Amino acid sequence: MSTVEKYLKPEVIRQISRLDLRAQFIVKGFLQGLHASPFHGFSVEFSEHRKYAPGDNPDDIDWLVYAKTDKYYVKKFEAETNLTGYLVMDLSASMAYSHEQELTKFEYSICLAAALCYLMIHQNDPVGLITFGERIVDSLAPKSKRQQIGNILSLLAKLKPKDKTDVAQSLTQLAAMLKHSSLVMLFSDLLVEPEPVISALRQLRHGGHDVILFHVLDQAEVTFPFEGLVELRDPETGEMIEVDADGYRSDYLDEIESFRALYERECRQSRIDYVPLDTSMPFDRALTEYLANRRSCG
Amino acid sequence: MGFLTPWLLAGTALIAVPVILHLVMRRQPRLLEFPALQFIRRRQEANRRRMNLRHWLLLALRCALIAGLAIALARPTLKGSGLRGKEGAPLAVALVVDNSLRMQVVHQSETRQQVATEMAQWLVGQLPEDAQVAVIDLSRMSGGFVVDANTAESRIRTLTPESNPRPLEDAVREAVELVADREDYRQEVFLFTDQSASAWNESALQSIGQLLAEAPDVRLYVVDVGVEGVRNVSLAPLEIRNSTLRPGEPLTIRVSLDAVGTTEAALVEVALENGVGEPVKRGQQLAEFDEKGQAEATFELGDLPLGIHQGTVRLAESDSLEVDNTRYFTVEVRPPADVLLLAEHNRDALFLREALQPSFSDDRQQGRFSCTVQRFAGATAVDFKDFQAVCLIDPPALSDELWKALADYANDGNGVGIFLGHRARLAGFNDSSAQMLLPGTLELRSRYATYLRPRGLDHPALSGLRDYAEEIPWQIYPVWQYWQFADLAGDTYVVARFANNQPALLERPVGRGRVLTLATPISDPMEPQGRQPWNLLPTGPEPWPFLALSNQLVGYLAQSEREQHMFFAGETVNLRLAAHQRVAGYALYLPGGQTVRRKLSAGEETIGISTTGDLGNYRIASGGESRLLDLGFSVNVAPDVTNLARVDPQALTDALPAHQLKIARSLDDVQRYVDIGRSGRELFSWAITLVALVWGTEHLLANRFYREAA
């Protein structure tokens, strides 16, 4: 049984095994609704025809083919791969955290990444994968073949978030790696000092890359649902702090709010898409909303 | 500050619970993975300080809540009885209920005594079970602590008006001394009275003030049940000129009226009881009051037959105080007493006879005495039993037979008067037969000039002169000669002496009778023939002392002294029995209609009655239809007892120690004082309110802290 197939079992549906299916479902629904890629390449050339489906742009109907066959066909274009997508996945130990949620932040991120991967492959955009801890750990060169999805998912399925992380360093390293303008889709909880990260994001953006920052937090990290006296341990550093959760909640919420607000403000200034997520949100809907939003903006 | 249940203060120890929970038994924190520790870390210090502050504040509030609850349940009091070291001690309470007749004033359909009784009963109901209670009233009986509250209540309920109350200060003294004896107790005296000025006079205030000063632990609560603006007309004691009347002598009754709060004329009625004791109205008079509220009425009742007559003088209309609207009287109409005057010559008896039975008196009105003069020579032929008294005026030596007859006469309970003079001789008078009557052997005829000087006037033979004792100028009636006695018989009593201290008037009981001997003549002329007068008693410048003296002496001998028929409640009545009235038993008819039968021991000459608490007319009878014994007397209320004037409260507070005295005017006042005096003013309601406030604050704070967090 292949790695991908074992994920097909219903009982492990919550795991990432059905990422491709899930991704298909998400993106198909999306495409069927929108009929246009939210990602536009620089040069697009015709590749083939396909049957017209309701919802397709009528401008794309090839009237010559209609004249010959009396059927509607739309022209299909193949992008020349100057829009290369990179799924950049944070492998820090904190990404493995989940508090009473089905998915860890990492799993949630994989779901999102799988969906986006499917979407881009579906558009024949090449997609690559980069994982990082304190530095870049793994990378998969971008390809637009359909097998790429399987490759990426296989790799992600094997990964375990366990390292310490240095987002800024990794991004800087990534910026140095990328030769062409690319679409960098960063999945991280960003639980590090924000200034170096923001600086690295700016640098990446400055390098001509399009950046989407998926800021994935666990629901517990957003709502701080604890009660009473708790001792909190940082899974990365092992540091422990004892707090009265009830008395601390408001302070915490203030902090997390200002933390998100900081990223949002900085990203807006740098024209980076900042997508704040938490694992309690249904990720398909979250993604759909984001993509719709991006399309309407772009 | 005191506590009713101080042991509950131990509950404050429960403060330890939240403290232990807070400090010792802290919850073990739950260990949780949490990556976003950096947000915690930033505000950790400030948050910890704030949380600590909140926790300490909540801890303090919870401790205060527990302590407050314990204190509230311990029932704090603002001020105890003020007796150091006696908070929480049991109570010794004396309830003094003024039950004098004055308390019978009716206001709003209740007598003052009823009000006082209700208050006292309520108070008893408030007392704790371990309290020692004494109920004291103004009767002469002194009480002690009763067994329990029920007994006390019963005693209060059965208190009856006291017509002969003792002074209020005496009852207060008894109460104070009673509770002061209970040294380990809180000592409280509650006095329920109407604040009468007559009860709270200056000496009473002084006495009670001194009493309280000697017992500093005793608290006196005066509960004023009196009322202002009472309308009352009272009758003063009757003034009856002569309560022993002779046939034909009219009865004159004069009565003074005193009005308070009204000036309307009052109708006064006089009634005499008929043969079956029913009152028959004999007259009425409208008494007009002057500006001082004084009035007077005089009644004259004639044609009273022989015997005892009893009646009432009363106001026709009722008012607030009924008890002083009626006055009772008893008079007696007696026949004249037959007196035998034995003399050598009729002229020797002249002065005495005229003194006893004036020849110029009104024929319609018989005198007190009916005199018969007989010479000594024929005395043996006289039956002495026809006379109530025999007087020997300047007797010479008499026959043994006559002395013996006189002795027998005296033995039967009659009176013999021997007035010695110039005819007396040692030989004839010192014989054994004469000595049966004489007080002693004659020694000599003294020529030592002196005069009669009675002292004391306590003896019934002279007691009638007591009212004029200061006014009789005995020294202007010289006595130049008198008989001096060598030895006095053992049973002789010297009734009066001369100024030189020699016996002048002597009494000797003989059998059941009495013999009076005057050592100098009673009826000596001013200028006797052939000799000097022995004295000027009958012939002195003023005749009335002689009249009085002779009437007294012969009246005593004839046992027809003017008897007292009017008494105040509580006085002991002594009624002298004449020889013919000696009975073995009698019936006493009380004013209420009850009859008490009593026996008399042989030879008893007086009837003593001390149960004179009921107002009204009393009658004593014996012998059935023959009326061998028929006596009567009246008992009235003393004038001051019904004086309704009220004392100025300032006088009370000025005279008595302020920290020991409280004056209450209502049940509320009593309750307040009871609260303060017994257990202090209870602060439970305040304490529990404070606890509720603390609890509310704690709740609010706790909610506020956690709501912010939620």
Ordered list of secondary-structure elements with their pairings:
The complex is a heterodimer of chains A (298) and B (710).
Chain A: H1 3-6, H2 19-34, E1 44-51, H3 63-69, E2 73-79, E3 84-90, H4 105-122, E4 127-132, E5 136-143, H5 147-158, H6 167-177, E6 182-188, H7 194-206, E7 210-217, H8 219-223, E8 229-233, E9 240-244, H9 245-269, E10 273-278, H10 283-297
Parallel strand pairs in A: 3-4, 3-6, 6-7, 7-10
Antiparallel strand pairs in A: 1-2, 4-5, 8-9
Chain B: E1 2-3, H1 16-23, E2 30-33, H2 37-42, H3 44-73, E3 76-77, E4 91-97, E5 106-107, E6 110-111, H4 112-126, E7 132-136, H5 149-157, H6 168-180, E8 186-193, H7 202-214, E9 218-224, E10 232-235, E11 239-240, E12 244-245, E13 251-260, E14 266-273, E15 279-287, E16 294-301, E17 307-315, E18 326-333, E19 337-343, H8 350-356, E20 369-375, E21 389-393, H9 400-411, E22 415-419, H10 426-429, H11 432-435, E23 440-446, E24 450-451, E25 478-479, E26 482-488, E27 493-497, E28 503-510, E29 513-518, H12 544-557, E30 566-568, E31 573-576, E32 585-589, E33 595-599, E34 606-609, E35 616-622, E36 629-636, H13 649-655, E37 661-664, H14 667-679, H15 684-709
Parallel strand pairs in B: 4-7, 4-8, 8-9, 9-37, 12-18, 19-20, 19-21, 21-22, 22-29, 30-36
Antiparallel strand pairs in B: 1-3, 5-6, 10-13, 11-13, 13-16, 14-15, 14-17, 17-18, 23-26, 24-25, 27-28, 28-29, 31-34, 32-33, 32-35, 35-36
